[in-house]
Automatic annotation (TrEMBL):
Official protein name in the record: NEDD8 ultimate buster 1
Localisation per UniProt entry: Nucleus
Pfam families on file: SASH1_Homeodomain, UBA, Ubiquitin_5
Biased composition (Acidic residues): 562-585
Superkingdom of source: Eukaryota
Transmembrane spans: none
Length: 614
């Protein structure tokens, strides 16, 4: 298959260079049938490529037919508005994986999915469609999603099974159930990541509440602007979930997660992406996923993604890895990423008909493989010392295969990480103490957190921020729906404020806003000359006009408990797939890479042998 793709690419190059249009005479006649001139052209190119003439002629006929179909489709689209979509089916179908489907662009994604399922024999709820590197949204029209004439659509099966080919009722029912379970799993993934991302800034007790944090290459937490923090958290969370599926070789489920990660990364500023290697690794994982699905031709911008990854690595690691060497002292572990990069660049060039460039990149990948190969006996020796296989591989690559140096490196890294974790725990403990201190002064949890965030954790600065921004004082910790359902302030507390010299109406309004907190009400009135500021006056009016009780206040306890259980389940599923080792993404046995390097090098070397004979 790979060799055929190479020939297709090479012949397409020749046709472009010779400015030959196969859909026109003398290669295609007026009835759109093949012309006699095609055979002569096939003979010319087969001699040039040292290939079988019949094979070249067959491939050129495929190229001609596709060009004729495209031309017919273009004319049809202009006159009727009916677009043609090139549908790429899963690799298990072997033959006829590329198919054309005609459709209007005003239909919804759900209607297109149904049409594809009916046309190609899938269960509708058993597939996902990827177009323009995005999942097809079922509720939006194709036009709204940027789907155009001649676009490529890739069909992903949620679960692959040898029983897929059976058509009896029992198997079909099992498939439907599997699809529903996978869809639920994907939805739980989304909800779990959202919960953990939201907790990052809201968590009160880090020891008891799981949450996501972002660390730099040394393992220390880094501050991210709140406007981008959630997007980055979701991007990294989806990436980890996708990587977990990649490890299990569930590529059809991994790809949607990776594409979602790409979408959220794009919401982050360029400066932020240049400081971490996650975005570069994601580009490699996406291209790798397309390749393993056998759908690399579906990814029009594979070259762009690989160049983007290379540029991101350069910015993050520095020229010749200088920044990485400064931070970590070595770059042996990160070379695994470059091996994957060179391998994918070699594969892409081969599929594009660029034999020489393919050989250059594949040879680079081979050289790195030799350098990074870990001797199983050395891994075993380190495991005998109490280290994990993953630590052993990473340590050996960091220390050029020296077992003694690797043992010291791993031990030192463990101590360093323990110290960093201790410092991070202390930092979170101080933050919790500061929040409690501000709460003790009458401020709400939300106000305390927001002020401390703005003050970079400095308690004195946070106090100044609160004093100069009284609008923060009335932020409370209740749900928005319950904020307004407050009882009228007690007369006793109104009297206290009146005794201090404040007007009774202003005192009552302030107590309503601050939920009977006399201290905050008094501070606000003093700061504003005995009155509430305009924005707080509106809040007081809103709360006074809202009924203090609601017939639904006591309802839904069981439902809330069920929702909480579902959220806990969603969070636990995410946590199961987040690796304990911070350099898990750098660890690979390289078994798959070894096989693929050898396979594609054999293809390229066959081309070189043919060229020498020629």
């Amino acid at each position: 298959m790979a060799q055929k793709k190479y020939l297709q690419s090479k012949l397409t190059q020749f046709l472009r260079e010779d400015k030959i249009q196969l859909w026109k005479p003398p290669y295609t006649d007026e009835n759109k049938e093949v012309g006699l001139a095609l055979k002569d052209l096939a003979k010319k190119y087969s001699d040039k490529l040292e290939c079988c003439e019949n094979e070249v002629e067959e491939i050129m006929e495929e190229i001609r037919c596709k060009a004729v179909e495209r031309g017919t489709g273009n004319e049809h689209y202009k006159t009727t508005g009916i677009a043609t979509i090139e549908v790429f089916l899963p690799a298990r179908l072997k033959k006829d994986r590329k198919n054309l489907l005609e459709t209007h662009l005003h239909i919804t994604g759900r209607e297109l999915r149904s049409k594809i399922a009916e046309t190609f024999g899938f269960q509708e709820n058993y597939i996902k469609i990827v177009i323009n590197k995005k999942q097809l949204q079922l509720g939006e029209t194709l036009k709204e999603q940027g789907v155009t004439h001649n676009v490529k659509a890739m069909v992903l099966e949620l679960k692959q099974s040898e029983e897929d080919v059976r058509k009896n009722v029992q198997v079909e029912e099992e498939k439907r159930n599997e699809a529903k379970l996978e869809e639920k799993r994907i939805q739980r993934t989304k909800r779990g990541l959202e919960i953990l991302a939201e907790r990052a800034e809201m968590v009160v007790d880090p020891e008891a509440t799981p949450y996501l944090d972002i660390a730099n290459q040394t393992g220390r937490s880094i501050r991210i602007p709140p406007s981008e923090r959630k997007a980055l958290m979701l991007a990294m969370g989806y990436h980890e979930k996708g990587r977990a599926f990649l490890k299990r070789k569930e590529y059809g489920i991994a790809l949607p997660c990776l594409l979602d990660a790409d979408k959220y990364f794009c919401e982050c500023c360029t400066e932020l992406l240049d400081t971490v290697d996650n975005y570069a690794v994601l580009q490699l994982d996406i291209v790798w996923c397309y390749f393993r699905l056998g759908q690399l031709e579906c990814l029009d911008d594979a070259e762009k993604k690989l160049k983007l990854a290379q540029e991101c690595f350069r910015k993050c690691y520095g020229e010749n890895h200088q920044r990485l060497l400064h931070i970590k002292g070595n770059c042996g572990k990160e070379k695994v990423l470059f091996l994957r990069l060179y391998l994918l660049q070699g594969i892409r060039n081969y599929h594009s008909g660029n034999g020489e460039e393919a050989y250059e990149y594949l040879n680079k990948a081979r050289q790195l493989f030799k350098e990074l190969y870990t001797d199983p006996s050395k891994v075993h020796n380190l495991m005998q010392l109490g280290f994990s296989a993953q630590e052993a591989r990473l340590g050996l690559r960091a220390c050029d295969g020296n077992v003694d140096h690797a043992a010291v490196h791993i031990a030192n890294r463990r101590e360093e990480l323990d110290q960093i974790k201790k410092e991070e725990r202390e930092k979170k403990k101080r933050r919790l103490e500061n929040i409690n201190h501000l709460k003790g002064m009458g401020y709400s949890m939300r106000a305390a957190r927001q002020a401390l965030h703005q003050a970079a954790g400095n308690l004195e600065e946070a106090l100044k921020i609160l004093l100069h921004n009284p609008q923060l004082w009335w932020l409370n910790d209740s749900a928005p729906e319950s904020n307004n359902r407050q009882q009228s302030p007690s007369q006793e507390k109104i009297d206290q404020l009146v005794y201090m010299g404040f007007d009774a109406v202003a005192a009552k309004a302030a107590l309503r806003v601050f939920r009977d907190n006399v201290q905050l009400a008094a501070q606000t009135l003093v700061h504003n000359g005995g009155r509430l500021p305009p924005d707080l006056q509106l809040s007081a009016e809103d709360s006074s006009s809202t009924p203090s009780t609601s017939p639904s206040d006591s309802a839904g306890t069981s439902s809330a408990s069920t929702d909480e259980d579902m959220e806990t389940e969603a969070v636990n599923e995410i946590l199961e797939d987040i690796p304990e080792h911070e350099e898990d993404y750098l660890d690979s046995t390289l078994e798959d890479e070894e096989i693929i390097i050898a396979e594609y090098l054999s293809y390229v070397e066959n081309i070189k042998l043919a060229a020498k004979k020629n």
